[in-house]
Specification:
single chain; mainly alpha; Cytochrome Bc1 Complex, Chain D, domain 2; 41% helix; 8% strand; disordered N terminus
Length: 250
């Protein structure tokens, strides 16, 4: 079945370009309604947990996120719209999860949260939520240019036993169906996101790993620089779309 689906993606005409569209636009009305209503959106549970963690002292320094950054509604406004961003300490882009763990290690004297853990997802969802409604910012920092290009190359590279690239689906076949689901344009503006199939909030890296496994490729390790480069490239493609965190998808 997967081989047939893969072959179907490689034939036929390219979907017409209608500009940037959020994955939200491709969702069923009931899923859209779930995202719009904060009292029904299950991702808001992670936002509330993240708010509690924001105020909680941690590590040998005994300091909380709010102890340094104050009110997240002010200090974190726009952070997700500009993430991944360049990190001078490493000379590479860093995403929100990486920044949270970097602060825990350097500022709080605490152990980093485990990848895809409830705590890390809650805190990053809370931080990203402060940018909801803001447009995804253009990537203008010249230091990020080589990493955007790296991400573009990874996006267009064919991988796995099905010999498919991200672009094969999300550039050339968006708006069509694959396995009963509509293919979106692969914009990251809803992440961290609540997926009904997961019954949980998950990161963009989790979604990309799922795609890699779906085409029968070996996924990159959690936190791999390839994932950050891909995230950065996807951010550049999503310029101007509103941050929706926490988005809701099937």
């Amino acid at each position: 079945m997967l081989l047939l689906l893969g072959a179907a993606l490689l034939v036929g005409g390219q979907a017409p370009d209608a500009g940037r569209r959020s994955g939200f636009d491709f969702m069923a009305p009931e899923t859209q309604a779930l995202q719009r209503d904060d009292t029904a959106n299950p991702g808001m549970l992670w936002v509330m947990e993240g708010e509690a963690l924001w105020q909680q002292p941690a590590g040998s320094a005994g300091v909380s996120c709010s102890g340094c950054h104050g009110d997240a509604a002010e200090s974190m406004r726009g952070v997700a719209a500009r993430s991944p961003a360049f990190d001078a300490a490493t000379g590479r882009p860093i995403d929100l999860q990486g920044r949270v763990n970097q602060c825990r290690r350097a500022r709080q004297g605490a152990e980093p949260f485990a990848v895809e853990s409830q705590e890390l997802l809650a805190l990053t969802t809370y931080v990203a939520h402060q940018s909801r409604g803001m447009p995804v910012a253009p990537v203008t920092d010249p230091r990020l240019a080589p990493f955007v290009e790296e991400g573009r190359q990874l996006f267009e590279r064919r991988i796995g036993q099905l010999d498919l690239s991200c672009a094969a689906c999300h550039d050339r076949r968006w708006g069509q169906k694959l396995g009963g689901s509509i293919i979106p344009q692969a914009h990251p503006n809803g992440y961290p996101i609540y997926r009904l199939e997961w019954q949980s909030v998950g990161s963009l890296q989790r979604r990309m790993r799922n795609c890699m496994i779906g085409v029968r490729a070996e996924p990159y390790a959690w936190g791999a620089p390839e994932f950050t480069a891909l995230e950065l490239y996807l951010r550049s493609r999503a310029e101007g779309l509103p941050v929706e965190t926490p988005g809701v998808r099937p």
